[in-house]
Design brief:
mainly beta, SH3 type barrels, about 0% helix
C-alpha cells in the first residue's frame, strides 16, 4: 500500500539556511506555524538537533520539523 508523508497544519516548521561547509541547517529564529497540511519527503540531513529536514513536494524548499508530528497517510 502506498503512503504519503504529511506535516499537518498547526505544526511549527523552520526554513533552511546555508551554514558551515555549505550544509543546510534550520533557521530557528524564523519558525512559523503551518496554516495548511503540506506533503513532504524526509531528507537525510544532519545537524538539526531534535528537528528533521523535509523537502516540500512541488516546491524548491526544505523545512525542518519535529518527527513526532509527521503523519504517514495511506493513499
Amino acid at each position: 500500500m502506498k503512503s504519503k508523508t504529511i506535516i499537518p497544519k498547526g505544526t511549527s516548521v523552520c526554513p533552511s539556511e546555508l551554514g558551515h561547509n555549505n550544509f543546510y541547517y534550520p533557521k530557528l529564529n524564523k519558525c512559523t506555524i503551518l496554516t495548511d497540511d503540506i506533503e513532504v519527503q524526509q531528507l537525510a540531513y544532519a545537524g538539526g538537533g531534535n528537528l528533521t529536514a523535509y523537502k516540500v513536494n512541488g516546491q524548491n524548499s526544505i523545512v525542518w520539523a519535529q518527527k513526532k508530528f509527521i503523519q504517514e497517510v495511506n493513499i
